Amino acid sequence: MSELALAAFAAETGSHVVRAPRERAFRVFARRFDEAAYLAGLREAGVGWIARSAPEFPPLLHAIHDPPAGLFVRGEAGLDLLRRATVAVVGARSCSSYGAQVARMLGRELAGAGLVVVSGLARGIDGEAHRGVLEAGGATLAVLGCGIDRDYPAAHRELAARIRATGLTVSEYAPGVEPAPWRFPARNRIIAGLSAVAIVVEARDRSGALITADFALEEGREVFAVPGEITSDLSSGTNDLLKLGASPLTASADVLDVFGLVGAEAEPVELGSSAETVLARLRDGPASADELARLTGLDAGTLASALTELELAGCAVAGGGVYRANSIAT
Amino acid sequence: MSELALAAFAAETGSHVVRAPRERAFRVFARRFDEAAYLAGLREAGVGWIARSAPEFPPLLHAIHDPPAGLFVRGEAGLDLLRRATVAVVGARSCSSYGAQVARMLGRELAGAGLVVVSGLARGIDGEAHRGVLEAGGATLAVLGCGIDRDYPAAHRELAARIRATGLTVSEYAPGVEPAPWRFPARNRIIAGLSAVAIVVEARDRSGALITADFALEEGREVFAVPGEITSDLSSGTNDLLKLGASPLTASADVLDVFGLVGAEAEPVELGSSAETVLARLRDGPASADELARLTGLDAGTLASALTELELAGCAVAGGGVYRANSIAT
Q1: Which of chain B's residues have a Cβ under 8 Å away from the Cβ of A249?
Q2: Chain B residues with CB-CB distance to A327 below 8 A
Q3: Containing domain of residue B298, as a range?
Q4: Residue B12: beta bridge partners?
Q5: Is B292 within 8 Å of A98 when comparing Cβ atoms?
Q6: Which among B230, B289, B291 is the nearest to A328, CB-wise?
Q7: Are B204 and B318 within one domain?
């Protein structure tokens, strides 16, 4: 009985299967299963298959208590991507501008330091983390909660294609499997399982990202949570993780330290004096353009060009009508 | 030799003295010191004195490794205020609107639950914590880093008078002692020493509030830090405290738990539908009025009155051109 038969049976019956079921239906299915023909079909669709018992199967994922039968993979990266040092960056789908900024910076900086960032292709934090990696010219792993032939959510079809151009999308689900709510926690165990370190950027109470963190803690992986304001519901899950003993992440260097890596030195940026003045205020916390005008005494035109200068230089990020300093550079 | 002579000698010589110095100058001073006359002078100035050896001296402060010779006190509260369960709320002088909001809420809610809040009368977090207590009709303790007859900073003269109307200002420094930078760390040890729990709301790296936290940790007191955005320098000290093992504070209930107290139930607030809509957005994080208009689709007039309604109901706070939900109520 092949592991591929397990995955194909799970797809055909719409069930979640990681070990051979005792039921007669499975024995009948497995006897009739034509592995060579199935593999040829996958190949034709540009889909690879790594059985759990194959030497290419990621060792960290093999170590969890219920590893999938195997992984379907799509993308241009070599399969060795699945064996490199991997960090999960996950969080809320409807994230705040703060969370989006931090997720993208982490994607960029962790990939820049040579780590593989894995996430779930979801809206919000997941997508920002993937995009940050692509900005840094890195390769990223997206783990799907549906069949490997689907790009879910549909709004991330183009992002999935960009991910596959240098990285991989992977799934334990065979082509044809529809996304379903119960598959996402199962998917989250794979994100956690692939990763030596899991980072939760923003999460409400009872968020799916906390499930990923739970899986990671159960498997003895290091879990980081990004602190946020206690007046924001989007940080209540992450701040609660800190209470439970997760490590606070304040810079990507915190994660690089775990792997004995050192980040790239931030290149010194030359800024005009107005931009320097504005940046000094932003370092004290988020502020609206109106407030920055009041605090700095700059006229509207000068302030606008200072803000544009800061954004282009990567020193500030706008979101939610609020500007923030971009100060987690390693 | 009386402890009061130590304090008077320290004032006369501009030094910091907690034990009898071996120098001849002190022996001469102590021999000539007229304690009864000095006490009469204090009484006339409305200043009380609690020697370290007196039964009224706060036991937690007595337990630190270098308790002051005694405390000078001013204010209408009875001296038993110094023996009640005490929490220090400290932080940056140039705090952000986020820090100010949290400090004031903590002052209000901790005092409302019957705890004595102690702080340093400084600008920023200290002042907001004291003001929060006064809003709740509570009594607060302000520890000065100068002579008990001074109100420092001058901008807080009125606040100091309001504190004394129901609470106390205290100092180890006798009347006439000028504020000096080196006295503030010494003052911070008293804030920490008086308190079973110390809370740092906002702090930059190398902030004075971190000195208070260090004293508290050294003396085995519980230290809380309020998480904040990793892109804000004003939260870098507090987030680093979390890394060092301080407990994350996300609600005043976290502190009340330490004392086995339960906070007052928040009274249910009836809000109009526009105010509810705006509050739902604010719960996801800080936003400017412009952004709120965009997100809610409310016209400027409706939005303005919804924001006013939320502020009056205590559900939202404005600061830095940004509105935040007031969601740390216990």
Answers
A1: 230
A2: 230-233
A3: 273-325
A4: none
A5: no
A6: B230
A7: no
Is the predicted pLDDT of residue A268 greater than 80, yes or no? no
A142 and A227 share one domain: yes
Q: Are B83 and B61 in contact (CB under 8 A)?
A: no
Interface check A242 vs B, CB under 8 A: yes
Look at residues A210, A229, A259 and tell me which one is the last residue of a structural domain: A259
What are the pLDDT digits (tens) for B70-89? 999 999 999 999 999 999 99
Distance CA A306, CA A311 (A): 9
H/E element holding A325? strand A322-325
DSSP A128: H
Interface probe for A, chosen from B223, B230, B278 (most Cβ of A below 10 Å), is B230
Q: Give SS3 for A117.
A: strand
Mark whether A185 and A156 lie in a shared domain.
yes
Would the pLDDT of A1 be above 50? yes
Structure tokens at A283: 């370092």
From chain A, the residues in CB contact with B227 under 8 A are 227-230, 235, 239, 242, 248
CATH code, domain with B303 = 1.10.10.10
Residue of B93, B94, B201, B231 to mutate when probing chain A, most A C-beta within 10 A: B231
State whether A250 and A298 are in the same domain. Answer: no
If asked whether residues A88 and A228 sit together in one domain, one would say yes
Q: How many domains does chain B have?
A: 2
**In this complex, which of A94, A231, A288 lies closest to B326 when CB atoms are compared?**
A231
Average pLDDT, integer, range B244-272 = 90
User: Rounded mean pLDDT of B299-325?
Assistant: 90
What is the pTM for the complete model shown? 0.91
Q: Where are the beta strands (DSSP E) in A77-146?
A: 86-90, 116-119, 140-143
Q: Which residue, B213, B232, B259, sits at the end of a domain?
A: B259
- Mutation target vs B (from A284, A295, A303; most B CBs, 10 A cutoff): A284
Q: Which residue shows structure tokens 């969890």? A: A64
pLDDT of residue B1: 61
| A contacts of B321 (beta carbons < 8 Å) | 287-292, 294
Q: How many residues in total does chain B contain?
A: 330
pLDDT at B328: 54
Contact B229 A284 (CB under 8 A): no
Tokens 């207590």 belong to residue: B133
For residues B98 and B198, state if they share a domain: yes
B141's enclosing H/E stretch is: strand B140-143
List of chain B residues whose C-beta atoms are within 8 Å of the C-beta of residue A240: 250
Nearest chain B alpha carbon to A93:
B284
Share of chain B above pLDDT 90, in %: 84
The order of strands in the sheet holding B247-248 is B48-51, B70-74, B168-171, B140-143, B116-119, B86-90, B197-200, B222-225, B247-248
* DSSP code, position B287: B
If pLDDT is split at 50, 70 and 90, which confidence band does B329 have?
Answer: very low
B242 contacts in chain A (CB < 8 Å) = 227, 242, 248
CB–CB contact B283 A98 (8 Å): no
If you search the block for the tokens 């990020």, which residue do you land on? A317
B253 touches chain A (CB under 8 A): no
Does the structure's ipTM exceed the value 0.85? yes
pLDDT digits (tens, 9 = 90+) for A31-82: 999 999 999 999 999 999 999 999 999 999 999 999 999 999 999 999 999 9
